[in-house]
Specification:
Layout (H helix, E strand, L loop, with lengths): L21 H8 L3 H10 L6 E3 L3 E3 L2 H16 L4 H10 L1 H28 L1
Antiparallel strand pairs: 1-2
Length: about 120
């Protein structure tokens, strides 16, 4: 089981891909696949694309939402209902947090590109 002390900064960088499988998202977000499927039922913001045989394909914004949900539940101690209310009711804070995550991710990706170009 994940400890509450592990923060979102410990999570790996999100690769520059269009779609992610549930297994990949599980590793990127530090959450088991069955938890992701449960969260889909509880959070209307989380809607992965479903294709052949109901296989889920998550996009980058889904991964960011999952990381935000994880932070609310595991790090800030919200209940499912409280996290749902926080996500839907506090749009300004959500946008700010999501923007910070996007900027952090872009910075990591740009630094990786810079290292590739220096070689």
């Amino acid at each position: 089981m994940l400890e509450a002390s592990s923060s979102t900064t410990d999570l790996p960088a999100i690769p520059s891909k269009r779609y992610f499988t549930i297994g990949e998202v599980s590793e990127l977000c530090g959450v088991k696949p069955h938890v992701l499927r449960y969260w889909e039922q509880e959070f209307p913001q989380l809607k992965p694309v479903k294709r052949r045989g109901n296989r889920r394909y998550y996009q980058r914004h889904d991964v960011l939402v999952i990381r935000q949900i994880r932070g609310l539940l595991y790090e800030q101690g919200f209940t499912i209902g409280g996290a749902r209310q926080q996500l839907s009711g506090d749009g300004a804070k959500e946008d700010c947090t999501q923007s910070q995550q996007i900027v952090r991710q872009l910075r990591i990706e740009l630094e990786e590109l810079l290292q590739i170009l220096k070689q």
